[in-house]
């Protein structure tokens, strides 16, 4: 693993486990000392609200079949576990890398504003140049919601191992577990916005909740 990058999450579990193995420590030591990790996720506030509305719609349709404590954090868990289960069944790394890179560009790239500035190239001679700038904070900029997810360390490590296996196909683009959680959620919300609250999707979510 000589091409291992610095970190695939804020916890850098894969590097710690590999370092621990060099020091003759058991990788289980990391999980007994810290069983859970806390990931910080930021989302456009509208998409955060859309997820909460979906969960309320789920309760409205299926009433008491939805566990009382099921919330948006659990929805993140389900989407992540479903993704990793698909990986376990076999995955085309090139295809999944293209998917994630495309979604990172769509969902996680800062909006760019193109403006034109007047530049003097010689006395009394000016030219217009286009300048691209990332959209900064303003009254009109999109507001964000910040969520803390409590995830088992072993689950995060599994995701880091997957991202390490995927890294040769990622065109040297940095990609973390936090990115993966955010993209899976936003892609789910995008499908809800495009197709509405599909009953088949709702039943699938409810079925997965019952399995846990």
Structural features, described:
The protein is of the alpha+beta class and 212 residues long. The chain is built from 8 helices and 4 strands, in the order ααβαααβββααα. It has helices spanning 13-22, 28-33, 45-62, 72-88, 93-108, 153-166, 177-195, 199-211; strands at residues 36-44, 112-122, 125-134, 144-152. The strands form 2 sheets. It has a two-stranded antiparallel sheet with strand order 1-4. The longest helix is centred in the C-terminal third of the chain and has 19 residues, at 177-195.
Task: Note the main attributes of this structure.
single chain; about 55% helix
Span between termini: 34 Å
Strand residues, percent? 15-25%
| Major beta sheet summary | 2 strands, antiparallel
* Average pLDDT level: 80
Topology:
Blueprint: H1 13-22, H2 28-33, E1 36-44, H3 45-62, H4 72-88, H5 93-108, E2 112-122, E3 125-134, E4 144-152, H6 153-166, H7 177-195, H8 199-211
Antiparallel strand pairs: 1-4, 2-3
Helix pairs in contact: 3-7, 4-7, 5-7
Could you give a quick summary of the protein structure above?
The chain is built from 8 helices and 4 strands, in the order H-H-E-H-H-H-E-E-E-H-H-H. The two termini are 34 Å apart. 53% of the residues lie in helices and 18% in strands.
């Amino acid at each position: 693993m000589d091409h291992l990058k610095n970190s695939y999450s804020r916890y850098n579990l894969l590097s710690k486990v590999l370092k621990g193995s060099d020091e003759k420590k058991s990788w289980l030591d990391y999980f007994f000392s810290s069983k859970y990790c806390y990931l910080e996720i930021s989302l456009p506030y509208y998409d955060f609200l859309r997820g909460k509305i979906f969960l309320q719609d789920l309760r409205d349709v299926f009433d008491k079949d939805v566990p009382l404590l099921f919330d948006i954090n659990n929805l993140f868990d389900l989407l992540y576990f479903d993704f990793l289960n698909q990986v376990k069944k076999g995955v085309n790394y090139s295809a999944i890398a293209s998917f994630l890179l495309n979604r990172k560009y769509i969902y996680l790239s800062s909006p760019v504003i193109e403006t034109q500035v007047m530049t003097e190239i010689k006395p009394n001679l000016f030219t217009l140049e286009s300048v691209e700038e990332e959209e900064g904070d303003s009254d009109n900029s999109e507001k964000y919601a910040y969520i803390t997810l409590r995830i088992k360390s072993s689950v995060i490590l599994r995701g880091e191992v997957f991202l390490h296996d995927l890294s040769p196909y990622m065109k040297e683009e940095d990609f973390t577990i936090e990115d993966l959680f955010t993209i899976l959620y936003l892609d789910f919300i995008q499908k809800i916005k495009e197709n509405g609250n599909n009953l088949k999707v709702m039943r699938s979510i409810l079925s997965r909740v019952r399995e846990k």
